[in-house]
Specification:
Layout (H helix, E strand, L loop, with lengths): L3 E5 L7 H11 L6 E5 L5 H10 L4 E4 L13 E2 L1 H6 L4 E5 L2 E5 L2 H11 L9 E4 L3 H12 L5 E4 L3 H9 L6 E4 L3 H9 L3 E4 L16 H5 L5 E4 L8 H8 L3 E3 L2 H16 L5 H10 L3
Parallel strand pairs: 1-2, 1-3, 4-6, 7-8, 7-10, 8-9, 10-11, 11-12
Antiparallel strand pairs: 3-5, 5-6
Helix pairs in contact: 1-10, 1-11, 4-5, 4-10, 10-11
The structure holds NADP nicotinamide-adenine-dinucleotide phosphate (NAP).
Length: about 280
């Protein structure tokens, strides 16, 4: 018998239980998947409790993705590369960490008609999400990748971790963003600017005017469903997509890890997505 959870603080708003329930039902599996509040600092106690209580896999959200790394028994490349785990599975008594955010984003980009292969990409942000997304863009065959961040040292630190030599760190001032956008065919927003509940918003959207016609704009944010960035990108006639697809795909990939077998990914994504309509 398997049992899964999503942990975080806050976590009760998480869509993971609904997405996983839909996929498990589609597979005819009655394994429970519940949300569980775990506060910062409580991870060691949670891991012991989870093992004693039959939890065989869990997803992690804020504030645990990075804190989990030193506590796990092993890491898959996806988690080791970005120093964060969003999916943890118990295999042979060992807690193994994975990160499905990056590949989830790549699948969502392809689904939205924004395959990064061969394209110059402008990534905005260098926080936890960008750390997962950038290596996935590299593995997805993106050409040059500019990582622009308000705090330049954070962008530089992200780029220095990569051996592909395709990453260039950059600042976040309007002139820099416009100049990089003019060279890019895909823009991926990994900042929290425009997210519901945060007061921060882009001060200047002129980088959108600099993007070439036909460029894609992908915003990881899905609350609200249409951010100001996406609204303006669509008004300019650009292909624009929010982060719901990424949310769905990271869950599909996490379920494959929990069950330790390949699934019909399209079927699972369709079942999960239907819950969001
Ligand atoms: P994070 O680690 O806190 O990073 C936040 C990023 O936003 C940093 O790059 C930060 O720059 C930048 N930022 C924040 N306020 C800013 C401002 N006023 N001006 C310029 N830059 C600013 O957060 P995260 O975990 O990476 O998450 C980022 C976003 O992605 C969130 O909205 C989250 O909901 C979304 N997300 C979506 C999914 C999905 O499945 N769709 C998955 C993961 C995350 P500094 O480094 O300079 O502070």
């Amino acid at each position: 018998m398997s049992a899964f959870q999503v942990i975080g603080d806050p976590v009760l708003h998480s869509k993971s239980p609904i997405l996983h329930r839909a996929m498990l039902d589609e597979l005819g599996l009655d394994y429970p998947y519940t949300a569980h509040v775990v506060k910062k600092g409580e991870l060691p106690a949670y891991l012991a409790w989870a093992e004693d209580n039959g939890i065989t896999g869990f997803n992690a959200t804020m504030p645990h993705k990075e804190d989990l790394i030193p506590l796990l028994d092993g890491l898959d490349d996806s988690a080791a590369r970005c120093g964060a785990a969003n999916t943890v599975a118990l295999r042979d008594g060992k807690w193994l960490g994975f990160n499905t955010d990056g590949l989830g984003c790549l699948e969502a980009l392809k689904e939205a008609g924004m395959d990064p292969a061969g394209k110059t990409v402008l990534v905005l942000g260098a926080g936890g999400a960008a750390k997962a997304v950038v290596p996935a863009l590299v593995s997805g065959g993106a050409g040059r990748i500019f990582v622009a961040n308000r705090s330049f040292p954070r962008a530089a630190a992200l780029c220095v971790r990569d051996e592909s030599h395709r990453l260039t760190p950059a600042g976040f001032d309007p002139d820099t963003l416009a100049s990089l956008a003019a060279q890019s065919r895909l823009l991926v927003n990994c900042t929290s600017l425009g997210m519901e509940g945060t007061p921060s918003q882009f001060g200047d959207f002129s980088f959108l005017d600099a993007l070439p016609g036909g460029a894609g704009v992908f915003d990881l944010i899905y609350h609200p469903a249409e951010t100001e960035l996406l609204r303006r990108a669509r008004a300019r006639g650009l292909n624009a997509s929010n982060g719901l697809g990424m949310l769905v795909w990271q869950a599909v990939l996490a379920l494959e890890i929990f069950l330790n077998r390949p699934l019909d990914r399209s079927e699972m994504a369709a079942a999960a997505r239907a819950t969001l309509d």
